[in-house]
Amino acid sequence: MPQQDENDRSEIEFSSKNHELIIRNRYKFYYNINDVLIAVWFILGSVLFFWKETETIAIWFFLFGSIELLVRPLMRIFREIHLKKIRSGKAGSDDNIGQ
């Protein structure tokens, strides 16, 4: 019987590591989307600063880009919290692994 217990434990560890990999890849995708948005906001803001009548809109785009810069470390914090819950076995069954 100890052999089966060992197999069950290794399957659980493999499943947990697989789940962690899926979560890390999901967050990596979100990081990339966020980085693209940062670039778009700042490029648009920079271009719109060429004309006096679009300066206000440009300022708003710079503000959006700055907010996106804040989102980056927040996503990392949320990822670490998410992974810590998985490692401790407290992740809810409502986590959709495939999404």
Please name the defining characteristics of this protein:
single chain, mainly alpha, 99 residues, disordered C terminus
Total strand segments: 0
* Separation of the first and last Cα atoms: 37 Å
| Topology order in helix (H) and strand (E) letters | HH
Query: Overall mean pLDDT score?
Result: 83
List low-confidence stretches.
93-99
Continuous helix count: 2
Beta content: under 5%
Backbone structural class: mainly alpha
**Alpha-carbon Rg, integer:** 21 Å
Outline the secondary-structure elements:
Layout: H1 2-48, H2 55-88
Q: In words, what does this structure look like?
A:
There is one protein chain. This protein has 99 residues and is an all-alpha fold. 82% of the residues lie in helices and 0% in strands. It is built from 2 helices and no strands. The protein has helices at 2-48, 55-88. The longest helix has 47 residues, at 2-48.
Summarize the structure.
The protein has 99 residues and is an all-alpha fold.
